[in-house]
Amino acid sequence: MSKIRAILVEDEPSGMDNLRWKLQNNCPEVEIVAECTNGKEAIRAIKRHLPDLLFLDIRLGDMSGFDVLDAIKHPTFELIFTTSYDEYAIQAIKNSALDYLLKPIDEDELLDAVGKARSKQKSGGASATAETAAQNRFGFPISTGQQFVDLSEVIYAQAEDNVALVYIKDQKPLKISRSLGWLEEELADNGFCRIHHSYLINLHCMTEYIRNEGGFVIMQGGKAISISRRRKDDFLSALERFNLNP
Prior knowledge:
Shape: elongated
Largest sheet: 5 strands, parallel
Distance between the termini: 39 Å
Number of helices: 7
Mean pLDDT: 87
Structural class: alpha/beta
């Protein structure tokens, strides 16, 4: 049986240690893929790991747990709140929380909450996976029609005359029948950023940002792309929005 991939969000070290220990000793089906001590770390980890389950404290140092949820456009995880305060229960229900555990967390209540997550995973896992996959696919217009590609596989796109070349992991570049400007508008809400007149990059496929007068990025596969001076502010703003600090 597959593991339940979980992220723990807790700003108190003792609270994190306690939750981790109870999960490791009572819930072997849970695999902890990330531990976050503030909201920004949590948002970044959720986008990178796409967990099955999120244990979320409500009062964090830099923002609230509800702020974290507001920053995730299409959540695909089950949610368990962990808090010392009982006044947020109604707000938790409005956020479709699977459970609401008061600290100190009772082991039996933790087992019950994880059991609910496992049941949801069994009953809805296949359909949720299919829905998520559908949301992440995009039909690129080509001369013969459309070619559908998972956007997570798209590294960057490059202008070529009045059309664009799309560079995809482990594939030959795909020549589409539209301009780079058109592609920029279509993918604006999917983590893509225009950093140069000739380049549109997938921020999630960027491995390094090098500061200098203009700056440049290194993409997966090793491609280095310069950031034009007039697009640098937009690029830095995009990094902040996606919680990828420069």
